[in-house]
Amino acid sequence: MTGDAPRPPAGTAAAGDGRLRARPGPVTGEAEPERGLQRLGLAAERDGLLYVPAGYTPARPSPLVVMLHGARQEARNSIAPLLRYAERFGLILLAPDSRGPTWDRVRGHFGPDVAFVDGALALVFGRYAIDPNRLAVGGFSDGASYALSLGITNGDLFTDVLAFSPGFVAPAAGRGRPRLFIAHGRWDTVLPIDRCSRKIVPRLERAGYAVHYREFWGPHMVPRSIARNAAEWFLTKQPRTPH
Question: Which CA distances in Å does 154 have to 18, 20, 46, 109, 238?
Answer without folding.
Answer: 8, 7, 23, 15, 19
